[in-house]
Amino acid sequence: MANEYGSMERKIAKFLSQFPVLKSGIKSAYGRLVFIRNKTPSRTLSSHRIEPVGDEMLNTFFGYYDKTPVSEDGFLICHSTVHPTDRKPDSRKSLDILVFSGDDLKLPVLQLKTKVYNWQQGARAHWLDADCFIFNDFDEAGQRYISRVFSLKERKEIRRFDFPVQDSFRRDYFLAINYRRIQALRPDYGYRNIPALNDVEMADLDQDGIWKIDQETGDSALLYSISDVCQTDFEPRFNSAKHKINHVMISPDGERFIFLHRYFVGKRKFDRLFVAGRDGAQLKVLGNYGMVSHCFWAGKGSLIAYMRGPSGKDGYYLIDVDSGAISSFSNGSLDALGDGHPHVHGDWFITDTYPDKSRMQHLLKADFATGEVVELGQFFQGFKFGGETRCDLHPRVSPDGRKVFFDSVFSGKRKLYMLDLQS
Question: Total domain count for the chain?
Fold first, then answer.
């Protein structure tokens, strides 16, 4: 892939991470400069059949890469809006949640509205089982973020919780984080309906963290506080840092989950990867080498992650959650392509890249056993989508493994697409 950024450019970017503001300016200017030399007339390249979801006039997207948009019965859920998506989300404008049958990706069978969203994860809408899905919303009267459970068969809301969902395990329980804290430190994944935490509120680490909510009873408990997290392998610089927890992902068997502890010393960001038990009895650091980007469960006891490894090299790593052992995926065969969003299906996974020098994002399929990497397509992202409004492909696989769903703006609109692996 000749237009990918090279190892020297990545080393410079890694060095500039110590100076976030400077890095942002240089990255933007350099990206525009190399695009002039490498631009291509192509907006999409793929040998597979690709079909957009929703009416052609709509912006549609699913959101993050950690969930499939397709239910066990083949229904598809996504977010939609007629408003421009190259601007920051506006809390005065609602977002639609659409459900499609697997036979018709143009005309939705159900449409709901939510007041909370961002362009990276939408309202965290996702399936709990073959019938029910959950999504976040805003309670105007209570001035708080909530989650709602909707039954497709009954065509009505069947539960409402006083916590917004971050991740769920079927109809058993879900985990929640503080989106006001996220809005203060990483608005790409926050909500704008009420103010972000101020500095005084941010300093309270004992009453903030990860909550567990029982879906049957509605009972809730602060499972792990940010203070608990900081006290695990404590470092003195934690005392002067600002902290957040994000990207909670529950294991396939529901017994434990991973999350990122991100803290800021001035403008500089540091990451730690944790695993924790659903009962609050386990809290362990899996990665503490400065950077952890995107992870996915590769089984009930293993992960694949794009992160900085023990040697200081950034790349794709396999992590044994029980032993803590870390090994490079396929001797680093994917590492030259940079960061991506892996989504595992059985013995293979899908991942993607950020825009290369010609502003093309690559969609890839990789085999765990052989290490073989196959490119499924390339898709253009223009400069008007960037920062909070960027559109990562965030690929996800259908439950039957026959289709890949990804978000893209190659048409000029934010759109959810289906790629047929069998075509």
Answer: 1
* CATH number of the domain bearing residue 278: 2.130.10.10
DSSP letters of 287-315? EEEE-EEEEEEEETTEEEEEEE-TTS-EE
150 is a domain residue? yes
Q: pTM above 0.90?
A: yes
**In angstroms, rounded to a whole number, what is the distance separating the alpha carbons of residues 299 and 307?**
18
- Is the pLDDT reported for residue 1 higher than 70? no
In the block, tokens 């969203």 appear at 117
Whether residue 2 is contained in a domain is answered as: no
Residue 1 covered by a domain: no
pLDDT for 340-354, tens place per residue?
Answer: 999 999 999 999 999
The model's pLDDT over 306-336, given as tens digits with 9 standing for 90+, comes to: 999 999 999 999 999 999 999 999 999 999 9
3 neighbors 360 (Cβ within 8 angstroms): yes
The 10s digit of each residue's pLDDT in 104-140 is 999 999 999 999 999 999 999 999 999 999 999 999 9
Task: With beta carbons less than 8 A apart as the criterion, state whether 182 and 164 touch.
Answer: no
Q: Which domain holds residue 12?
A: 7-420
Say if 360 falls within a structural domain.
yes
Neighbouring C-beta atoms of residue 328, cutoff 10 Å: 16
Query: CB pairs under 8 A, 24+ apart, for 230-236?
Result: 230/205, 230/261, 232/274, 232/283, 232/284, 232/285, 233/272, 233/285, 233/288
